[in-house]
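How a chain folds remains the central question behind the approach discussed here. No coordinates are needed to read the tokens, only the vocabulary itself. For completeness, the protein is quoted in full, as a sequence line and a line of structure tokens:
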Amino acid sequence: MRLFKAILLLMLVVSIVPTLMVGWLSVTHTRELLVRDAQELAQERVKQLRLKAEIFLGEPTEAVMGLARVPDFFGLPLEAQQTHLASVLSQRREVLALTVFGPDGKRLPGLQAFSRHDVPPTALASHEERGHALLEGGMEGPRYSDVVATGGGGPVVTLAFPVGEPVKGFITADLSLAGLRQMLEQERVGSTGFAYLSDHRGHLVVGGGGVAALGGDVSQRSPVAHLLRQLASTPDAELFHVGNFGEGRDAVVAAYTVLPETGWAIVSEQPVEHAYRQVETMERRILLGLGAAILVALVMAALFSRNLTRPLKVFTDGALELARGKFGVEVKIPQKNEVGELAQTFNYMSKQLLAYDMENRGLYESLEKGYLETIVALANSIDSKDAYTRGHSQRVGDLSVEIGRELNLTERELRQLQYGGILHDIGKIGIVESILCKQTKLTDQEMAIMREHPAIGDAIIGPVSFLGAVRACVRHHHERWDGTGYPDKLRGDDIPLLARIVACADTFDACTSTRPYQKAMPLEKAMEILDSLTGAQLDPQVVAALQRVVAKKGVRLEGHRLPVKLAS
């Protein structure tokens, strides 16, 4: 109720403002102000058009001239040069063609590139001819040709610039002005006005609206004629002008400015009667309507900000803290109204969420601990059957996690790697001890039985739902990168990433642990063996990650930290 009364009081106070504004505007605004407003509008419009035109022309120009920044472009092999040209063509659809010329002005063989669209031979010849024309007499910087229309009617300008210091050659490019033309065609200058681009001789470059019916010569348009006179008297001046041009029915309110890179002028013009009529309409409807409404809104916003905006901001900040997981956060709002009651409800909710979160964290940690203890117990049941492999599963799990962390895997995937490494040999429970613990070379028949342990392990943990993601590590840790592994003969990236990581860690631990058939190898020898298996048995990226782990942290071999670190 208090909040409602405050809003009602504000509405009563601000209702006086529109009446005061009507009187103030009727006294202070004059015809001179209206004229100046119209001209300022034209001035602002042409500034915006200039910015848009510079963007439309500058972005493809910058992409093409980036070739000049390629180190020793003319010293690169032909294929590399063609690759750079193709890259520019694929990145910028406005770039229609690129041709590379030597310092003598002759086109270099194999260095004329065109976009994916079909280009007729006449267009190719015209492109090269314009490039030759721009190169005549030499150049010190970029230069643009006159605008021409292609076979499809789209305007095109040719850009040429030198490459290297001293000059080692030149690059020319055909740039489509279709986007610039479309922008000007869509640009609305009132109901009857239009905007267009003119070159330094008064020829139309591109334009929209009524200028399309004027043909290619716009030098007789009063704004363009004024510009040409200015250029004749001060050719190097930075030109910008706005005002009334022409007389009688041809009078227009226009503004123009010159693009320094090309020397083109961008012109915006509108008939005087329409320009000033729109300004008068704007004064009546916008200044009397929106102007008063804006002031009312400003006053209301200033008053509302004290009683409503600040509390809402406090609520927003508190809600963001809750969203980030900072349960228990409180908002402090001393107001004794509906907002204050909402704050108390918010604080109660936050405390309840904190209690629930702490309870859930405890349950999750207890469950996670139970999972890990179960997994370790399963792994120990395997290691207990073979004294030579005691601790092998735990080491494989730990090393797999380090490799996964080096590959920027998520915490969830690292946890799955820990479980998968510990359980990767769980299937050996189903292998008879006479084969599992045999200290001599296995026969072919015994080896076939031993190779069943990945499938046995997969069948053992299959019914355990929370170990679903771990099954890949158990079943596929003996698959080989070249596809000759078992049990499914998967190849390359078809082997799950987690299984490839466990396989690498398993191989490394087998090399660095004492077995019935071998003694633990030195770290350097083990890494040499892994290098030899890269690309055949092991994933090269995973081996590279293991090498980085060894280089950064070293590894434990049968309970001893090695001081040696290998370079990756």
